[in-house]
């Protein structure tokens, strides 16, 4: 039996503690479509290509990490936004977005899931706070790992490295992870005694910071570091709600 759209969104808002994460735009339900939902697709970023896939699957709800609306953007509905909205309106599709809440969630979030995928244990403390909630997390291991082996593990668990500035200690035991655009937090995590920092984006100062701070810096791509949360949401929706949910992989080189 299909789920009411508002019940699905309310459930996601509650599980992700949406109100605890002040963000850069409106999060949760961004575009209203049909009132009931039986099929959901999740993905990293809103795009026309994603909405075309959602329409092919007759999805009633699309859930993304990067939505359509951001505070810094113009309020003008330009041709690209018009076409994206037209796809949603024509097929009566709802759109919901979860940004920082999905980065920072301690079990479903991108950073917690990356730490788990790397075989490390998430610590109870984090960094890159939004209000009183951390978005990035520290991870630790009982046994240290040679730095070269750690880099290989990141490639296997996340994806090809866009940058690997190997200027930290020979062995990696404690790491920091902040997906996407996390490089600006590098000095903060270095001051917290980490051996390696895993993030998404490359960052011009990062190589010199790595040398001077003595911490490994690994950038595995903005997209690749942010698939983890929306994959977890697809699993959660399928398990906890009367909806079929599927993660749609539309990778970019970023």
Structure description:
By secondary structure, the protein is α/β, with parallel strands linked by helices. The chain is 33% helix and 28% strand. It contains 9 helices and 13 strands. It has a 6-stranded mixed sheet, with helices on both faces. Strands 2-6-5-4-13 form a 5-stranded mixed sheet, with helices on both faces. α2 runs parallel beside α3 and α5 crosses α9. It is elongated, with a radius of gyration of 19 Å.
Keywords:
254 residues; alpha/beta; six-stranded mixed beta sheet; five-stranded mixed beta sheet; 9 helices
SSE layout and pairing:
Layout: E1 3-4, H1 5-15, E2 28-31, E3 36-37, E4 39-45, H2 48-56, E5 61-66, H3 79-90, E6 94-97, H4 100-104, H5 110-117, E7 121-130, E8 133-146, H6 147-157, E9 163-165, E10 171-178, H7 186-190, E11 196-199, H8 206-213, E12 216-219, H9 227-240, E13 244-247
Number of helices: 9
User: Structural class from helices and strands?
Assistant: alpha/beta
* Lateral arrangement of strands in the main beta sheet: 7-8-10-11-12-9
The shape is elongated
- Rg computed from alpha carbons, rounded to a whole number of angstroms: 19 Å
What is the average of the pLDDT values? 97
Helix and strand succession? EHEEEHEHEHHEEHEEHEHEHE
Q: Helix share of residues?
A: 25-40%
User: Poorly predicted ranges (pLDDT <50, ≥5 residues)?
Assistant: none
